[in-house]
Design a protein that fits this description.
Layout: E1 10-13, E2 16-20, E3 32-36, E4 39-42, H1 48-56, H2 68-76, H3 83-87, H4 101-110, H5 118-126, H6 140-145, E5 183-189, E6 212-215, E7 232-234, E8 243-244, E9 248-250
Parallel strand pairs: 5-8
Antiparallel strand pairs: 1-4, 2-3, 4-9, 5-6, 6-7
Helix pairs in contact: 2-4
Bound molecules: calcium ion.
C-alpha cells in the first residue's frame, strides 16, 4: 500500500487582528495593531517544478499575465535568468531562486492570487504570537535545520525541498520554511519608516520607492535575519540565488 505524506496546498488564515512589528529593529517599530481580511497562502515556497510549469504554459510570451511594470521588465528580459540558474543544480522539488519580483508577481497572478503583503506574510508565519519564529523563540531549531552556510558568504544554493519536514519549525497552522530556506518576495514596497503611519486595515506599502521587501531570511543567514518581523529591502529587478516566494489568495485560496 502506497502511503503518501500530503502537504495541504494552502493554509487558510481567517480574518484577524494582530500586533505587527517588534521593538527589535528600527524598521520594525513601532509594533502596531493591524487587521486583515481572511486570505489563503501557499503552505510551501514555490518549487522549481511549479515555476517551470508556469514557464511551459507560456509565461514569458504572455504579457497579459504581467503587471505594467512587469511587462516593461519582460521586454528587456524575455526569458528571465533561464532554467539553469533558477534550478542551480537542484531537483524540481526545491524552491525556485533567481526570480525577480516581477516574475514572482506574474506567477502569483497566473495562479489567481498575488504576492502576500508584508502583513499577510507576518500574520501567516507567526500569527501575532509575539515569538521570533513560527515555532517560538528557540534559535537552535533553525541551527539544526540549516547545517550549511551561516557565514554570509554564498558558497552554493543549499536549500531543502519545499515540503521537506523540518524538525519542528513549522508554524502551528502548517506553514513551512517561513524561517530560512529562501527569502520570500512580498507585495510591499520597502520603506524603513512605513510602520509609523501605515494603515490599520490590510496595509500594503504602494509608495514609489526603488525597493520591495523580502521576508524570512535564507539558508545562508544567521537566525536574526529569519525572524517573523525582519524586513529586508531588495531591488525588484535583482534576481538572487537566495530568494524565492510563495503566493497569497483572496478568501480561502485557489
Ligand atoms: Ca522561506
Amino acid at each position: 500500500m502506497l502511503i503518501l505524506l500530503l502537504v495541504a496546498a494552502t493554509v487558510e488564515v481567517p480574518a484577524s487582528s494582530f500586533r505587527m512589528g517588534s521593538d527589535r529593529a528600527p524598521d520594525e517599530t513601532p509594533a502596531h495593531e493591524v487587521s486583515l481580511l481572511g486570505f489563503g497562502i501557499d503552505t510551501t515556497e514555490v518549487s522549481i517544478g511549479e515555476y517551470e510549469a508556469f514557464v511551459a504554459a507560456g509565461a514569458y510570451a504572455t504579457p497579459a499575465w504581467w503587471s505594467e511594470a512587469g511587462r516593461l521588465w519582460l521586454e528587456e528580459h524575455p526569458g528571465g535568468q533561464g532554467p539553469a540558474l533558477r534550478a542551480s543544480g537542484r531537483t524540481p522539488d526545491h524552491p525556485v531562486v533567481a526570480v525577480t519580483w516581477y516574475e514572482a508577481d506574474a506567477y502569483c497572478r497566473w495562479k489567481g492570487g498575488a504576492l502576500p503583503t508584508e502583513a499577510q506574510w507576518e500574520q501567516a508565519a507567526c500569527g501575532g504570537r509575539g515569538t521570533r519564529y513560527a515555532w517560538g523563540d528557540d534559535e537552535t531549531r533553525l541551527a539544526a535545520w540549516f547545517t550549511e552556510g551561516k557565514t554570509g558568504q554564498l558558497t552554493g544554493v543549499h536549500t531543502r525541498a519545499v515540503a521537506e519536514e523540518d524538525a519542528g519549525t513549522r508554524a502551528p497552522n502548517g506553514l513551512m520554511h517561513t524561517a530560512g530556506n529562501v527569502w520570500e518576495w512580498t507585495a510591499d514596497a520597502y520603506h524603513s519608516r512605513f510602520y509609523e503611519d501605515s494603515p490599520q486595515a490590510d496595509p500594503r506599502n504602494t509608495a514609489e520607492t526603488p525597493w520591495r521587501t523580502l521576508r524570512g531570511g535564507a539558508f545562508d543567514n544567521l537566525p536574526s535575519y529569519c525572524t517573523c518581523t525582519h524586513r529586508e529591502p531588495a531591488l525588484p529587478a535583482q534576481p538572487r540565488l537566495t530568494a524565492g516566494f510563495r503566493c497569497a489568495y483572496p478568501g480561502a485560496g485557489p
